[in-house]
Design a protein that fits this description.
This protein is α+β, with helices and mostly antiparallel strands. The protein is built from three helices and five strands, in the order ααβββαββ. The chain has a five-stranded mixed sheet with strand order 1-2-3-4-5. The longest helix is centred in the N-terminal third of the chain and has 19 residues. The protein is globular. It starts with a helix and ends in a 9-residue tail after the last strand. About 5% of the residues have low confidence.
């Protein structure tokens, strides 16, 4: 890249908004944290017409059971909402997952399961709180099985 191109890129390129940069940093930290807990990463930022899921993992049971189902009957799909904050002054990050957000996550999860042709697999919804300090990850908190499918949605 020549000198003129470098100058153009530096001054004409739009900088990523801070909230998007923090969100991306939080999602990456959550992904790495859950992978260290032996969850298998499947998808990031799954979008459907009805919602978005930050991260999707598969958790294998510690018990090996022979099954005729797709995958293993003891497998669990884990739908993860990541909440990244630089401060906890007012509330915990997980408190931002209100009834409306749970409904949207439930709808998006159902859309994902339909894409997989509705496998007979357990599902759960986790929240991962990522706390930042001076632009770096200070703490990651995993809150497993935080809520179940919002009514009227059912799976299984």
């Amino acid at each position: 890249m020549d000198f003129l191109s470098k100058i153009k890129n530096r001054f004409l390129a739009k900088e990523e908004p801070e909230h998007l940069r923090r969100g991306r940093l939080g999602e990456q930290a959550a992904k790495e944290y859950l992978q260290k807990k032996c969850l298998k990463f499947l998808v990031a930022n799954f979008r459907s017409e009805r919602g978005e899921i930050d991260l999707i993992f598969r958790e294998r049971s510690k018990f090996q059971v022979v099954s005729f189902f797709i995958g293993n009957a003891t497998d669990c799909l884990v739908f993860v909402e990541v909440k990244t904050r630089s401060s906890e002054r007012w509330t915990r990050p997980a408190a931002a997952v209100n009834a409306r957000k749970k409904r949207l996550l439930s709808q998006a999860a159902m859309d994902y399961l339909r894409l997989l042709k509705d496998p007979r697999v357990k599902i759960r919804f986790d929240i991962v709180e990522v706390l930042l300090a001076d632009g770096t990850v200070r703490e990651v908190r995993h809150l497993p099985n935080t809520f179940s499918l919002s009514p009227p949605y059912r799976h299984g």
